[in-house]
Design a protein that fits this description.
Strand content: 15-25%
Shape: elongated
Helix content: 25-40%
């Protein structure tokens, strides 16, 4: 009988320890919610991916994507594309919020984790561009003009102007 009483006491303590914070934080409403969560689905974007405001310059490394170059070029122009199995890495400059917004729009148009976005200093991004150590570089038109990014374009790099 004492063993059963100890067992019940342990359960009561466990319920108090776990149950009070669970109910205080609205645990039952979290369990009943129909919203997206980390296990069942990804967060839905609230903006229209075709609603691009601003002008951008996109550099595509031809050497890394020779078979899908035309598809990626069409994609960055805003056209619908067929499924592409290439994963791409996108470079943007620190502080270029317009390019970051456009990169986020592009990410939303692709399947999950197909495009990764990395931010670095403008000097390093342009240096990687000159030495063709990139997949995609996205710059706002203003920043591209300010840093003379046209020096990056040339043989082996496709430039897409997004308006």
């Amino acid at each position: 009988m004492k063993a059963v009483a100890r067992w019940l006491m342990r359960i009561a303590v466990l319920v108090l320890i776990l149950g009070i914070p669970f109910t205080a934080l609205g645990g039952m409403s979290l369990l009943r919610s129909d919203g997206a969560d980390a296990v069942s689905s990804a967060t839905a974007y609230t903006f229209d991916p075709n609603d691009v405001s601003g002008e951008y310059v996109v550099f595509i490394n031809n050497e890394r994507h020779p078979d899908t170059l035309m598809v990626w070029e069409s994609f960055f122009k805003g056209e619908d594309i067929p499924v592409v199995l290439d994963d791409i890495s996108c470079l943007i400059c620190n502080g270029d919020t317009l390019a970051a917004d456009y990169a986020e729009i592009c990410q939303a148009r692709l399947p999950e984790n197909q495009m990764t976005v990395k931010s670095d200093t403008s000097l390093l991004v342009l240096s990687k561009g000159e030495y063709r150590q990139f997949d995609i570089i996205i710059l706002s038109k203003e920043l591209a003009e300010a840093y003379g990014a046209e020096s990056v374009s040339g043989q082996g790099i496709t430039t897409v102007n997004v308006i």
